[in-house]
Every structure is written in C-alpha cells, then in structure tokens.
Specification:
One of its GO terms (cellular component) is cytoplasm. The chain has 2 domains: 275 residues, Aldolase class I (TIM Barrel, Alpha-Beta Barrel), CATH 3.20.20.70; 69 residues, no CATH class. 38% of the residues lie in helices and 19% in strands. The chain contains 16 helices and 14 strands. The two termini are 35 Å apart.
Length: 410
C-alpha cells in the first residue's frame, strides 16, 4: 500500500494560510499539481498514492468514483482561489500526475485545466503537462488534450525490453511509447518526455542501451531516467525478500547512469537536473524546476503536497475521504508544517545542488564551505565557469550527490 503521510500540525478547516506565507507572493511563480490517484493495475515497484478499482471497491462509494473525479478536484481548485485570496498571480505551470491520469476521459483532464484557467488564469507561456500511460491513449485522445490547452506530455516507457517490463509489472508493449511520441507530435505537442527506469533486476547493460537507443529513435525532446528504488511494502520488495528476483545493486545503478549520460549527451541531450536531460532550455520541465527551486505550488488531489511561502501541507490520502472533506466544505488537508529559515536554507541546498546551475556558495555555512572545498579537490564539484560562486556537481559528483549534499548542509 502507499507510504504513510508525515506528521504535522492540523490544517484549518477553511485551509487558511498564515499571513507571512502570502507576503511577497507576487514575486514568486505559482504552479498547480493535479493528482489523479487511479490505476488499472498496480505496478510492482510503485508506492505512490494510487488505487485500483479493486482496492476502492466498498471503501469510498460514489465519492471515490473516478467518473466524478474532475468535479471533485475542481472543488479544490476553487478552495485554492479562496485561500490565496486576491493573489494576482497567473499560473505558470500545471502538471497532472498519478496514478494514471489518462484513465480519465480526455475531456475530464481538459475540464480540470479549465477550472485553473477560470479561477486564476494561465500565463501566456504556461507549461501544461500530463503524464500518460502509452496503452491508455490514442491519437484522438491526444488531440483532445492538445486542443484543450495541454502543450507537454510525459509517457511512462521505463524500458524497451519485455522481460524488464514484466519484472516491473508494466502492462504496455515494447514499441508503444515510441509510437505515442509520434502521435503526440502529429497532433501538435512540441514538448514530449519519455520516462525510463534503470537497474531493474534482470536488466543487462545491453538491455539498458537498447532502451536508450529506442528513446533516441523516438525523438522526444526530454528524457527522465531514474534508478529503481525498492520501496518497502511493494510487490517487488516482497519478491526480492522471497528470493524470486535479485536485489538491485548501487554499482549497477552507477554504471547505468554513466551509460545514460554518455548516450544521451552524444545525441544532443544536456543534463539540467541529475535525473533529467533536455535538447534545449525550452524543453526543460518548468514545473519540476518550481519544486527544485522552492517556488509555490498547490497540489490538488488525494495525498497531494503543496508549498506556499514556506508553508507545506498535504492532503488526506484516500479518494473517499478527500471527496468527503470537499463535499462538506472543508479543506482536505491532513497536516502541515511551517518551515523555518534554516529549514528553507537546507532544502535549497538539497534541491538546487541537483541542478546544472548548482547552489550558491552564499547559502553554505563555514563547515559547508570547507566541505565544498574538499569536494572540489576530490573532483565532485566543478572548478570551471559553472563553479564560480556556486557548488556545481561534476559527473562523478552526480553519482555521489547524496553524500556531497550531506556535507554541504552542515
């Protein structure tokens, strides 16, 4: 089952934010994340807040139905308008994730986007993305999304090899994600991402190279590649514990990452975040950059997390409880925390170090500056133009990013 929510202080029934959270809001970009918690089946490695029809049966009644989900989520967008009051900002990015957003009708996704446009307005150059399962869309579905205002789409590919997909419990057929890229281009999507996972038990270097070559053949302008993480409570974790498949290996992950950077770099993709490559600055995912740069976003949907002006909160997880709260006129927030200045400093270092531009050295304390000098000498941070006044990871540093950042935050 999905992982537990963190602890925190209660969220007011009306969702009201402390006044300091809204101070200076006009100077910060605002994004929306819309969570669609439904999946046809549960992938063996997934611990996201998602639910299959079987898991929901009898636990939420009509309130948990995906048939009226767009209406329910629209209620939270209206709540966001009330909470943010006369905040003048138009929305810069919208990202629909899941779960499997494309289990909903395309018109439902468009209606959810329209609610944001109606309540807040969209910036003229707003980035509007949805994740998509390759087997749950066709060209007509994609055309409806494009006509409705979506201009970026991210397909879950994971691997081009059938035996790897089987271990991950992925249901799409090899070749379908690549076909989806062509279909998305045909209906006018300029920006298309393919998601990959490396380090799956049973995957070889040749399998991984074949997946990368399949991506290059499809021609998306953005690629995300993530190391497989075995989360407790997942089917994959249980299979590994029973000895049915081997445990993932950190050294294998490092080798696969190096292969990815080599292959993608040679094809004209530049890394701009540790796990993300793009063919140009315009192809970068602006919504994710909001997260990495600590901007403001409202997360709507069961279990979704939000952040505005140093206040972070999260919604109740179950779709029935979420819908019930909104139907009763209450915020669906389950808890929140107000970040201190030190919390925000640490988070900036944790997140911005992952970016190509790195993190300003001015954020580091004395011990962190000493650690940065040591990391520079060890070849983990760059000494060239990117490294002037900033801590910027080298390729080797990206492989050891978690260890580097632990030293810098001291």
């Amino acid at each position: 089952m999905p992982s537990a929510l963190p602890d925190g202080e209660p969220v007011p029934e009306d969702g009201a934010l402390p006044a300091p959270a809204l101070a200076g809001a006009a100077d910060r970009p605002l994004g929306f994340y819309l969570h669609v918690p439904y999946c046809a089946t549960r992938c063996g490695y997934c611990d996201f807040n998602t639910y299959t029809a079987t898991e929901l049966r009898g636990t939420g009644g009509v309130l948990a139905s995906r048939d009226n989900y767009a209406d329910t989520l629209t209620d939270e967008v209206r709540l966001a308008r009330k909470v943010l009051g006369d905040d003048p900002r138009q929305v810069r990015t919208v990202f629909v994730g899941g779960g499997t957003p494309t289990l909903l009708a395309a018109d439902d996704l468009v209606r959810m986007l329209r609610s944001i446009r109606d309540e807040f307005g969209l910036a003229a150059d707003a980035e509007v993305t949805t994740e998509a399962n390759p087997e749950s869309v066709d060209e007509r579905y994609l055309a409806t999304l494009r006509e409705g205002g979506f201009n970026r789409i991210s397909f879950g590919m994971q691997s081009a090899k059938q035996h790897v997909l089987k271990v991950l419990d992925r249901t799409h057929t090899p070749g379908r994600p690549e076909a989806c890229v062509a279909e998305a281009r045909a209906v006018g999507f300029e920006h298309v991402n393919l998601d990959l996972i490396y380090g799956t038990p049973g995957e070889s270097d040749d399998d991984w190279r074949a997946s990368l070559e399949a991506v290059l053949g499809a021609g998306p302008d953005h690629v995300s590649a993530y190391a497989l993480i075995v989360e407790e409570g997942t089917q994959l974790a249980r299979r590994i514990r029973r000895g049915e498949v081997p445990m993932t290996d950190d050294d294998v992950h490092a080798d696969r990452y190096l292969i990815a950077d080599e292959v993608l770099g040679a094809a004209g993709y530049e890394w701009y975040e540790v796990s993300n490559w793009a063919t140009s600055r315009a192809a970068r995912c602006l919504h994710n950059e909001l997260y990495w740069r600590g901007a403001d976003w409202w997360g709507a949907g069961p279990g979704a997390h939000s952040h505005v002006g140093g206040v972070r909160w999260w919604n109740v997880k179950h779709p029935g409880a979420y819908a019930g709260a909104l139907a009763a006129g209450r915020s669906p927030g389950a808890g929140r925390e107000v970040l201190s200045e030190e919390d925000r400093r640490v988070e900036r270092i944790l997140l911005e170090l992952r970016l190509r531009e790195g993190v300003p050295l001015a954020l580091l304390k004395d011990a962190g500056l000493v650690a940065a000098g040591r990391a520079l000498g060890e070849g983990l941070l760059e000494a060239g133009p990117y490294g002037e006044g900033r801590a910027v990871l080298t390729l080797r540093g990206r492989l050891l990013a978690d260890a580097v950042v632990r030293d810098l935050v001291d």
